[in-house]
Amino acid sequence: MSFSFTVTGRDPGGIARAGIFHTPHGDVPTPAFLPVGTRGTVKGVLPRDLAQAGSTMVLANALHLHLRPGEATVAHLGGLHRFMNWDGPLLTDSGGYQVFSLAHISTIDDDGVTFRSVVDGDQVRITPERAIDIQLTLGADVIMAFDQCPGNPHDRGEVQTACDRTHRWLARCADRWHAAGGLETGQALFGIVQGGSFEDLRRASVDAVASHDFVGYAVGGVSVGEDREAVRAAVAASAPYLPEDKPRYLMGVGTPRDFFDAVELGVDLFDCVTPTRHGRTHQAFTTRGRVNLRNSGWKDCDQPLDPECESPALKGFSMGVLRHLCRSNEMLGAMLLSLHNLHFFHSLMTRIRTAIVEGRLAELRREVLAGTERKLTPDGPQAG
Predict the structure, then answer these.
(1) 173-225, pLDDT tens digit by residue?
(2) What tens digit of pLDDT does each residue of 216-254 get?
(3) For the chain, how many structural domains are there in total?
(4) One domain, residues 137 and 216
(5) What ranges make up the beta strands (E) of 111-260?
(6) Range of 123's domain?
(7) Half-sphere exposure of 181 (CA within 13 A, CB side)
(8) Which residues are catalytic?
(9) How many angstroms separate the most distant Cα atoms in the chain?
């Protein structure tokens, strides 16, 4: 099987589209949200429960897996799909964002990056070629080019340097991937657009990245400290100008408002740690508002968490029971809330796809955000 992208519906009032991303390990209806399984597992979630929650494609991180247990070990154990016990599509991030987050222990030059391993302190060297080799060995369906995310998206000189380096590294990634067999490897390479908060640099990066005939393209370097309007402006300067017939992936962004903002600009794929990280800190997304399950007011509540969007994992669990699990630091509480949040995100994507086809995306946006952007307390919903 090969890769392809089919548009199945368009928003008559804009550029949002619904589609299907076809991969060797199955189809991904888009827009779609990818849970983050950084080290080969989505924290606190069994693979079988991922599917039940609605996941179709999952992300893992090549750099973290390189550090532990090593890509050779993953390959020896049957490749990443078997390693994760997940037979659906997988995507590996190359590690460019992790290099950004480890700026205090890394050195970047035109050839690559050197840093100290967070696992054992050993010196690690990653070049564009090495990043591709690691991902090819892991065996995900989609692999990402090695890019540089600028530390300050508002520093034009820094952003320009990062863009130029990203484009040179992309050419090297493409050469390595083609030399290994290209699509004959069964793995598709995506390029990543950078450009910080500068519209002209974003547009120039789109041109540079789209000059390569890849299966798909990503928008990177957003949600790294800038406000929401700056994020939206960066996406607006990037996503709509990427090839129309290829999937567009916005990396590391994930709240309901972010989804609507980006879908309206033609984005098809998202990933973020938000649903599982919030679950582990006992925060839940619901149609009535965000909920803190450690709030003492939920102690005697025998109602379900969200009657309008009930996760299969939460059937039979009242809010009072969930609060007890969270307050007692029982791992089941975090597991159940992570699953609920994933179910909520995937259900939202299903509703978005339907709304695009039916021409009521703007209506759905108003309806969803009116609920999700408030806090639900025992005394009722509150703003913010």
Answers:
(1) 999 999 999 999 999 999 999 999 999 999 999 999 999 999 999 999 998 88
(2) 999 999 988 888 999 999 999 999 999 999 999 999 999
(3) 2
(4) yes
(5) 113-116, 123-126, 142-144, 188-193, 216-219, 248-250
(6) 21-272
(7) 7
(8) 93, 271
(9) 63
